[in-house]
Amino acid sequence: MDIAGAVILITGASSGIGKAAALAFDRAGARVAMAARRREHLEENATQMKGALVLPTDLSDERQAVAMVDRTVAHFGRIDVLINNAAAIIVARADEVTSEELLRSFKTNVVGPVAATNRAVGYMRKQGRGHVINVGSPGFMIGVPLYTPYVCSKAAVCGWTRTIQAEWAGTGISVSEYFPGYIKTDSPAESGFGPVAQDTIIDPDQNFITRFFTRPKTPEDVARQLIGLVRKPKLLVYSSALTGLGSWVANLPGRRLSIAQNMAQAARKRLGLSTFRERG
Question: Which of 29, 119, 140, 219 gives 20 to 30 Å between its CA and that of 251?
């Protein structure tokens, strides 16, 4: 797809990957719609862009998810690419995770994107083509400790993405899955433990394999790859060869568990947690 003039709607565009992608697509000549909860951040980003559409949106509300698509089409006259990037990142112990945390994660990470995508695809079919990009996470393949709500919801996103790839094949609607791996961003995590640094599960003293698979990339690296993915759609793209290799290693149960155990040990050490919470 030619990016110049294309209408691209990006969720989670207030910071991190979404912000970097919005700025990069704008520089490449696309007409960009940015959706996120934090209006002030979107408006600040828009000052660096040419005619970007700001869409304050809470994706956990299906009505807002659908409305952002309608508003994009009403403003630009069409929608060519939907990048489902927004995600609720909730840190919670597996033995204490609540149904509320799970539901909140699933509403933002799965239900909202499904509602937005189904709305967008209606417009795309009338246009004769379109492209949906779902930003997933290979973390569900490893089983990232303390991130149960996020990991479970991203596993669901993967299953949904691959289902619509099969159902919509040959219809003119491209569906891509993007696995970013470990990206150093400023996106905040929700936590009952207080502030949780992004590298909490990464200990520099861990074994070689764990360090090898946790070398961070930047949001700007991802933005460049997303531009390439729009220009030439593919079913699955990893942010790096290491991420792809890590996903393959995740299919080796013993090695996968070793990596995840190291992450769990690092997190417990930094957060001062026991293996299980003692209950009275």
Answer: 219
Instruction: Report how far residue 138's alpha carbon sits from residue 247's, in angstroms, rounded to the nearest whole number.
Output: 6
Is residue 85 situated within a structural domain?
yes
Q: What are phi and psi of 81, to 5 degrees?
A: -140, 130
Residue 150 annotated to the active site: yes
276 located within any domain? no
| Distance separating alpha carbons of residues 171 and 272, to the nearest angstrom | 52
Q: Which residue has the higher pLDDT, 112 or 208?
A: 112
This prediction's pTM? 0.89
Which residue out of 147, 150, 178, 182 is catalytically annotated? 150
Domain count, the chain: 1
Write down the H helix ranges in the chain. Answer: 16-27, 39-46, 62-76, 99-106, 112-127, 139-142, 148-167, 208-213, 219-231, 241-249, 253-271
1 assigned to some structural domain: no
Average pLDDT, the chain: 88
CA angle 93, 95, 99 (to 5 degrees): 85
